[in-house]
Amino acid sequence: MTIERAYLDYNASAPLRPEALAVMFDIYARPGNASSVHGEGRYYRKCVEAARVQVADLVAAEPDGVIFTGSATEAAHLGLTPAISSNGAARPADKLFVLETEHPCILAGGRFEPEQVISVPVQSNGLADVDGLEEILSQHAGIIPYLAVQLANSETGIVQPVAELAKLVRLRGGYVLCDAVQAVGRMPVDIGQLGVDFLLVSAHKIGGPQGVGALICAPSALEIAPAIRGGGQEMNRRAGTENVAAIAGFGAAAALAAKEAENYLSIRALRDSIESELHPICAAQGLADCLTVYGADVARIENTILFSVEGLNAETALIAFDLDGVAVSSGSACSSGKVGRSHVLQAMGVDAKSARGAIRLSLGWKSTEQDKDKFFRAFNRITRRLAEMTDMRLSGAA
After folding, report:
1. Which residue of 63, 200, 249, 350 could cross-link 24, Cys pair, CB 3.0 to 4.6 Å?
2. CATH number for the segment(s) 18-258
3. Which of 225, 239, 254 lies closest to 56, judged by CA?
4. pLDDT band at 333 (very low <50, low <70, confident <90, very high)
5. What is the mean pLDDT of residues 207-229?
6. Sheet holding 89-90: strands in order across?
7. How far is the C-alpha of 73 from the C-alpha of 332, rounded, in Å?
């Protein structure tokens, strides 16, 4: 008998929406190339441009600012470059400033040299220290700064004060890239209100296909050097034949996500319900003082919980959950399936043992109360076993 599973790992990848799949099947059934001038090519081009509008609408951007890429990581590599021009004149960035809690594709620095990348610490609650960033920028007076900041953290869900941080950089004539991959579809995102130059988005986080993302540029006279040169695709900003089916699926998912603002409250209610039941279950096993929920005292996106239980190893727990038909994660899904210490929690000053035991639940468009029930059936068994092992260790010590 097949176990009906509970999928609670939307921050890694959301299930593909049926509407996106239908659009993709239609395109896969037709021949064509979006750069061709015949009817088949024009149909492909129409699909790409329709998706461009849908993705732009998701973040209140202009369609001609959307550059489709093979992933958000590629979009980050494209956007994170010192080679920026304004009104046709070269005005390169001198230094890239990144929060220590950023996604690995941001921490890698894109096309900046390693010596150009400066880490910016965060506070113990995971938030950037606005005054601290201002002090760091003051220490580098006279340069053109470039800040990269995640709107919502992929592990903790913590929401950064992006508009406030961006203002500090823009006042110094700098540039700002915002990683909105985890935020879109889970909170309102407006590129103009954020005051940033570039946004990163990814299709598969909102129910689109894997293998397509976008760099979205705010209306301005800024131009960035292409990272992939060749043909004139994407308005000469990203060469290579467009993955039209994936792009169209991205557009369909974006259109649905843009209409689902009312779902924020229901997803938050489910998240809060799960969070509120964690402590009683731990308390029932004598583990009340062992539970930590990260970011619980600051703003988070509605769908994310990152927690640890002292003594619980994440790798062991993930296997136990999986065997019970529950898919959860230990953090960012960009480490080839490895479970290790979270660099996000390390930056927040969390001790190594607790950081290695962190478990992430992330909800989305298909999440239900039944998923919650399956999670807690597994969590009850796991904490009961942890309590038994703790008692055995204490008895042996005595």
Report:
1. 249
2. 3.40.640.10
3. 254
4. low
5. 94
6. 89-90, 84-86, 222-224
7. 13
Q: How far apart are CA 8 and CA 265, in angstroms?
A: 17
**How many residues are there in the chain?**
398
Residue type, 73: T
Q: Can you name the CATH fold of 6-14+261-397?
A: Aspartate Aminotransferase, domain 1 (3.90.1150)
The token pair at 373 is 């029930």
Q: Is 18-258 in the same CATH topology as 6-14+261-397? A: no
More confident residue, 232 or 172: 172
- Are 218 and 239 within 8 A, CB to CB? no
Q: Which residue has the higher pLDDT, 194 or 351?
A: 194
Instruction: Output the pLDDT for position 362.
Output: 97
Amino acid residing at 301? I
What is the pLDDT, as a whole number, of residue 394?
A: 42
Query: Which of 105, 178, 217, 334 is the catalytic position?
Result: 334
The average confidence (pLDDT) of the chain is 92
**Is 105 marked active-site?**
no
Within 13 A of 49's CA, how many CA atoms are on the CB side?
10
Find all residues with CB under 8 Å of 153, minimum gap 6, and list them: 101, 126, 159, 160, 182, 295, 344
Average pLDDT for 100-125: 96
Hey, where are the domains in the chain? Answer: 6-14+261-397, 18-258
Kind plus residue range of the DSSP H or E element containing 145: strand 145-150
Give mean pLDDT, residues 333-346.
Answer: 69
Q: pLDDT tens across 240-283, in order? A: 999 999 999 999 999 999 988 667 788 999 999 999 999 999 99
3-state secondary structure of 386: helix
What is the distance between the alpha carbons of residues 332 and 278, in angstroms, rounded to a whole number?
22
> What are residue 326's DSSP bridge partners?
6
Query: What is the helix (H) or strand (E) element at residue 216, kind and residue range?
Result: strand 213-217
What one-letter code names the amino acid at 185? G
